[in-house]
Design a protein that fits this description.
4-stranded antiparallel beta sheet; mainly beta; single chain; 7-stranded mixed beta sheet
Amino acid sequence: QGQPVESGGGLVQAGGSLRLSCALSGRSAISYFIGWFRQVPGKEREFVAAISKSVDSTYYEDSVKGRFTISRDNAKDMVYLQMSSLKPEDTAVYFCAASGLSSANHAIAAMVRDFIWYDYWGQGTQVTVSS
């Protein structure tokens, strides 16, 4: 079907690092934008970062700028989220998602942040940051 598959979550102390991986296949592998979202119980799914297939466009949620880095290896159909200087408020289930959005869209900076534009979702991986 092409659902992304996340891995790499776990328990880490505040200030530590984790690298999440997202394995793409089928339709998710050919999708132009891949995004990471996170969600805690009782709250809406929150945008974290996104990257274009050409790797020349990346977007970040303000609270993770300078701490998280999204990258993509098209040869391996993999997307990564390197998370550093983790804080307890980063605790969430992290989801990888694929979207057919185009960089040519004039509203792309806003659209990549909205989960409604993503068609394929992984099952999520838990990240817990202890204080």
